[in-house]
């Protein structure tokens, strides 16, 4: 895009490295549908941004992406026009500035001055003046004041009020409330937890490294629930030796529990034939295969997407895994040939929004029906591949009822399967992982467990 440049007046000082990185990632998210959690680390490495600057850039980038709905509502009110009538580049600059004003401890003059200076560099003095006016309008009040003015009524629309307050689309907040059911009073706590930057979880590879050994190596803390989990205190996990040599991987503790649950399901006469039907990018596959190595089992992994299949092969290096690049619905594998099958189905990812900061504004309610159809088809294919007495573990990183209970209920109605209590598979002693619900399925939550909102249901084939 050709933009007019300000060629008069004093020499302008460009954004500092941290703010520049955040702005460039916001532009990539807006212009190219980039993923902030992939684009930012690569950019920081490329530019050699580390330490406090890297931490500041991360806070600005992920925070502005997560809170986009709230930021845009405030910007629209302060500007006196809808955000779709503001140049996209100016809008990203305004988001960066408003986020600093409302949700950080950055001095207001620094937030305003740096943003205005960059607007002058990108455009001209007139539009820099527009940015200055909007930011000064915003900065005259705090976030609570803006929320009180702009949010739906807490009385007449409590879900909408909480959604706005915690910067979630209303339909996502409603889907969370529906999934919480009788515990819908926890919605505010869930949305607040979902709006925070999550702690990085690592998984030690079984048979290679214990969680205690990994924690000592990375100055972390052993996880509360998974025997493989370590909580990282900070820093770039990609620079850790244990990650680089494959003795550990970055993996949410909830995902670790899902993979382990498949291995703990009661199967008489397990012949060691395990299948991961939706394997990409391979995190659960590698954990399954490492556990299988201790039991004599062998894992087959299916992933049709070439790039994701490549990632599976990278993640399972050194493990006995056969990777098939086929559609799990038409794999060509013999019927009734596996003892255990994991179906970690493609989904909306609503349970992992903490880790994908821009995703909540990209997903739409219309995405759900097509994904639920795909999920039903994949689960039906998995059931056909399991021998009588074997187990299918169906999992999603979404709590949306259409993707979870709806899919499982349909499978039980249509196929010769029985839902078994999944809770002991997540907590064999039934005294470690709290609040797993009434069963038979399991739903993890960020505000309860500190994990992604993983759903899992175990089905035994008749």
Topology overview:
Elements: H1 17-32, H2 36-47, H3 51-66, H4 68-79, H5 88-103, H6 108-122, H7 125-139, H8 143-150, H9 158-165, H10 170-180, H11 187-194, E1 201-204, H12 211-218, E2 221-222, E3 229-231, H13 241-244, E4 248-250, H14 253-264, E5 273-276, H15 283-293, E6 298-302, H16 306-315, E7 321-324, E8 338-344, H17 359-362, H18 367-385, E9 386-396, H19 405-414, E10 417-420, H20 423-426, E11 442-443, H21 446-449, E12 455-461
Parallel strand pairs: 5-6, 5-8, 6-7, 8-9
Antiparallel strand pairs: 1-3, 1-4, 2-3, 9-12, 10-12, 11-12
Helix pairs in contact: 1-2, 1-3, 1-5, 2-3, 3-5, 4-5, 4-7, 5-6, 5-7, 6-7, 9-10, 14-15, 18-19
CATH topology of the largest domain: Rossmann fold
Overall mean confidence score, pLDDT:
95
Shape: globular
CATH homology-level superfamily of the largest domain? Vaccinia Virus protein VP39
Number of domains: 4
Which sheet architecture does the biggest sheet show? 8 strands, mixed
How many β-strand runs?
A: 12
Q: Portion of residues in helices?
A: 40-55%
Detail the poorly predicted runs. Answer: 1-9
* Beta-strand content estimate: 5-15%
Distance between the termini: 61 Å
Q: Supply the helix-strand structural class.
A: alpha/beta
CATH class of the largest domain: Alpha Beta
Radius of gyration: 24 Å
Discrete helix count:
21
Oligomeric state as shown: single chain
CATH-scheme architecture of the largest domain: 3-Layer(aba) Sandwich
Task: Summarize this structure briefly.
The chain is 48% helix and 12% strand.
């Amino acid at each position: 895009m050709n933009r007019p440049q300000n060629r008069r007046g004093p020499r302008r000082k460009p954004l500092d490295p941290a703010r520049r990185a955040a702005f460039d990632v916001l532009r990539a998210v807006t212009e190219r549908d980039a993923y902030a959690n992939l684009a930012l680390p690569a950019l920081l490495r490329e530019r050699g941004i580390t330490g406090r600057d890297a931490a500041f850039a991360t806070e600005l980038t992920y925070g502005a992406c997560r809170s986009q709905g709230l930021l845009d509502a405030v910007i629209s009110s302060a500007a006196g026009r809808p955000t779709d009538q503001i140049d996209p580049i100016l809008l990203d600059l305004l988001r960066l500035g408003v986020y600093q004003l409302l949700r950080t401890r950055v001095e207001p003059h620094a937030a305003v001055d740096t943003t205005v200076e960059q607007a002058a560099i990108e455009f001209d003095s007139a539009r820099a003046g527009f940015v200055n006016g909007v930011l000064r309008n915003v900065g005259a009040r705090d976030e609570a004041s803006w929320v009180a003015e702009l949010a739906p009524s807490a009385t007449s629309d409590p879900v909408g009020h909480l959604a706005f307050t915690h910067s979630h689309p209303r339909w996502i907040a409603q889907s969370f409330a529906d999934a919480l059911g009788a515990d819908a009073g926890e919605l505010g706590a869930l949305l607040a937890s979902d709006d925070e930057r999550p702690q990085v979880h690592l998984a030690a590879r079984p048979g290679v490294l214990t969680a205690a050994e990994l924690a000592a190596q990375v100055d972390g803390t052993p996880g509360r629930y998974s025997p493989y989990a370590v909580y990282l205190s900070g820093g770039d996990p990609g620079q850790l030796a244990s990650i680089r040599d494959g003795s550990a991987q970055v993996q949410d503790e909830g995902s670790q529990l899902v993979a382990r649950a498949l291995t703990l399901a009661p199967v008489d006469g397990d012949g060691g034939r395990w299948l991961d039907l939706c394997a990409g990018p391979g995190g659960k596959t590698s954990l399954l295969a490492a556990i299988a190595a201790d039991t004599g089992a062998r894992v087959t992994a299916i992933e049709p997407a070439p790039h994701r299949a490549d990632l599976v092969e990278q993640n399972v290096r050194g493990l006995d895994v056969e990777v098939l690049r086929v559609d799990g619905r038409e794999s060509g594998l013999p019927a009734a040939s596996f003892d255990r099958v994991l179906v970690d189905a493609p989904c909306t990812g609503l349970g992992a929004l903490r880790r994908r900061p821009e995703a909540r504004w990209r997903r739409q309610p219309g995405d759900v029906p097509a994904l639920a159809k795909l999920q039903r088809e994949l689960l039906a294919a998995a059931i056909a591949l399991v021998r009588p007495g074997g187990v299918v573990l169906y999992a999603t990183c979404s709590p949306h009822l259409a993707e979870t209970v709806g899919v499982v209920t349909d499978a039980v109605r249509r196929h010769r399967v029985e839902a078994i209590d999944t809770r002991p598979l997540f907590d064999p002693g039934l005294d470690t992982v709290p609040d797993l619900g009434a069963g038979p399925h399991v739903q993890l939550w960020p505000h309860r467990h500190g994990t992604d909102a993983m759903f899992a249901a175990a089905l035994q084939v008749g």
